[in-house]
Amino acid sequence: MTVAMIGTWRMAYEGLTEGLNQLKAGGHSGDAIETAIKMVEDYPFFKSVGYGGLPNAEGLVEMDSAFMDGDSFAVGAVAGIKDIKNPISVARHLSNHHFNSFLVGAGATEYAVLNGFEVKGMLTERAKKIWQKRKVEIQTKNLSPYDGHDTVGMVSLDAQGSMSVGTSTSGLFMKKPGRTGDSALVGDGFYCDSEIGGAAATGLGEDIMKGCLCYEIVRLMGTGLTPQQACDQAVYPFVEKLKKRYGKAGEFSLIALDKAGNWGVATNVEFTFAAGDGEHGAKIMMATPGEAGTTKIEPITPAWLAAYEKRIKAPID
Predict the structure, then answer these.
(1) Which member of 17, 35, 151, 202 is catalytic?
(2) What's the pTM?
(3) What percent of the chain has pLDDT over 70?
(4) Which one, of 272, 193, 249, 258, lies nearest residue 228 by Cα?
(5) Which option is the CATH number for 4-312: 3.30.390.30, 3.60.20.30, 3.40.1740.10, 3.40.50.300?
(6) pLDDT at 36 over 70
(7) Is 140 a catalytic residue?
C-alpha cells in the first residue's frame, strides 16, 4: 500500500519530507504528522505558526493546534495555549483522552506543563518588531490590524492504511485576546476518516467555520468523488453562497488526501502547498482558482522559491 502526505503552504515542505521518510520506513501516520508539524512550529521564520508566530493585539503569542486519528476518530485540541514549544504534541497527547480532550487558554497551558511538555517563550525579537511596526501602521495609516492567518495543516497515510490529520497556528495576527478560528475545531479546520480520507484548512477561520468544509470534503470523497472533485465541489459553491448571504468571504484554502494516496486542493487565493507519496518525493506546488469552479495547479519555479526565502528572512525596518 502506498504512503502519502499533503500539507498547506510552502512552510510544510521540509517537515512533510521528513514525515514521508518516516512513512516509507514503516512509520505510523500520527507520528509523521507530529514530526512534520513540529518542524514547522520550531522554525522561527514561519511567522504564522509556533516559535516566531505573530502575536495578538496585546503582544502575546496564543496558539491553536489539533490532531485527529482517522482510525478511531480520536481528537485532541488546544486553543489559546501560551509558552509551550510544540502545541501539536499537546494536541496529540490530548487525543488519548475520552473526556477533556479539547482544552483552552490557561487550562491548556497548565495541562502541558503538568504533563512535561517543554515550556518556551514563543515571541521572538523579529516577531515583536513586526508587531510594533504594525501598531504604528494602524495608527498612522489607518490600516486594518488583521493581516495574516496561515495555518499549517497536514494529512498523512501510512502503509497500514491508517490516516491522521494535524493543524497548528498562531492565528490571526493582532487578534483579540482569546480569539480562536477554525484550526482547532473538528470538521471545520480538519477532519479524518481512514476508510475515506482526510482534509485540512487554512485561511480566515471566522469564515471557514461557517461551512464545516473539512467534514464536507471527506463526506463527498465518501460518495465516490476524487479528492480534487470533493475540494472543488465543497469550496467554490460555498464561497459564492457566503458572498451572497453574508456579503463577503475571506481567504479559503483546503487540502485533501484519500485512502489511496490521491490528493486535491481548492482555494480562492494564490496558495502554495506540498505533497508527496512513496513513489515520488515531496514537491511544492501553486494552486489558484480556475475556471467554472475548478482549481489550477502548477509547479513552483526556482525564482519563486528564491524570492520566498528572501522575503521571509528580510530585515525588519
Answers:
(1) 151
(2) 0.97
(3) 98
(4) 258
(5) 3.60.20.30
(6) yes
(7) no
